[in-house]
User: Which sequence fits this backbone?
């Protein structure tokens, strides 16, 4: 939980389990999707092919992933995605380069979390030390999967250390929920706590429980699913990018101070649920209704959950990829990364390729 108490590495549980027991837990977990294939199995060809495109466009020689849609900045999310994609494609050299860059430039010295953004040419290049919990969870997910695939105990131990600090520092009780905070600072208000449901990277939370056996992860997942179910608004009943939880009553509302939209953050909510096999039928039905109202050729980039207004432009191909695995009728072939307009659309698309590949071997 988020408290002022400092937790030692021993208290976090890091290093308590042997590498062999960790590997056994990873392989035996019913819901950890990557455990269905052996570490020596080659990644599905489409994943490898799309990773090659992603790598050529967004990975720099020093291991930095470039967000081409935001002025070439880098962030913990992007490093996590890059590490995950490299691990799934069996590209150990790229994985290690991306991990070393993240560890060297973004990881904190007083905990195992990561500053959320790196600005090339800025002094200092990391002006804000606040973390982004989705970036932390993506990096940990990639490390755990890489540890299994490449038989690297150090990767698994690094993942466990990150998970220990996330559960100790980035969770707190708010009303009837144990919530996952988006970052260390800036999200606890006088009357409410601000959440981002797309930061619940469900495959990573599943892996966290498998690696650590910490029951708090079960609670975080259970309450995360409750928040997704109850925290949907507007005619389409969709999650907002940012959600407020009343600190006394637990009542949910669209967070003030942000556009009241289902947009570039919340698009990942159905994707992570689908990937983790946690997409409840009623939630899937609402997403399906939304996608099919517009159709593949006219998906909006955002929709206002208070007025119903849609963006004046259509969604990028990454949105279409998400829709095609979460209820869009008459779905065609997944878009390829050749057609991605920027890093984020490419990342969404490659995530769908991975999630679909794992669906076929479930």
Assistant:
């Amino acid at each position: 939980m988020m408290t002022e108490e400092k937790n030692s590495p021993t208290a976090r549980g890091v290093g308590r389990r042997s590498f062999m027991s960790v590997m056994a837990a990873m392989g035996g977990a019913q819901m950890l999707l990557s455990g269905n294939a052996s570490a020596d199995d080659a990644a599905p060809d489409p994943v490898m092919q799309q990773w090659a495109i992603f790598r050529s466009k967004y990975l720099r020689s020093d291991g930095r992933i470039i967000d081409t849609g935001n002025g070439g900045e880098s962030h913990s999310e992007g490093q996590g995605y890059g590490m995950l994609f490299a691990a799934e494609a069996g590209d150990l050299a790229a994985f290690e380069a991306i991990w070393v860059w993240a560890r060297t430039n973004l990881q904190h010295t007083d905990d195992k979390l990561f500053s959320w953004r790196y600005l090339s040419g800025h002094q200092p290049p990391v002006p804000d030390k606040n973390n982004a919990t989705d970036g932390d969870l993506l990096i940990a997910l990639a490390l755990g999967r890489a540890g299994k695939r490449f038989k690297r105990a150090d990767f698994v131990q690094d993942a466990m250390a990150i998970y220990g600090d996330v559960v100790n520092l980035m969770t707190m009780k708010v009303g009837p929920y144990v919530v996952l905070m988006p970052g260390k600072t800036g999200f606890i208000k006088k009357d409410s706590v601000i959440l981002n449901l797309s930061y619940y990277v469900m495959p990573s939370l599943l892996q966290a429980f498998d690696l650590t056996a910490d029951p708090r992860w079960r609670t975080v997942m259970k309450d995360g699913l409750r928040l997704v179910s109850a925290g949907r608004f507007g005619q389409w009943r969709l999650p907002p990018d940012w959600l407020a939880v009343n600190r006394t009553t637990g009542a949910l509302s669209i967070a003030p101070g942000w556009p009241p939209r289902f947009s570039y953050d919340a698009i990942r909510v159905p994707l992570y649920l689908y990937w983790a096999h946690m997409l409840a039928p009623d939630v899937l039905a609402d997403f399906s209704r939304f996608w099919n109202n517009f159709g593949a050729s006219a998906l909006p980039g955002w929709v206002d959950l208070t007025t119903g207004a849609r963006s004046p432009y259509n969604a990028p191909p990454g949105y279409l990829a998400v829709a095609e695995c979460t209820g869009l009728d008459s779905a065609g072939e997944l878009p390829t990364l050749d057609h991605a307009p920027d890093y984020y659309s490419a990342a969404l698309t490659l995530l769908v390729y991975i999630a679909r590949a794992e669906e076929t071997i479930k």
Q: What stands out?
A: The mean pLDDT is 89. The chain is about 45% helix and 5% strand.
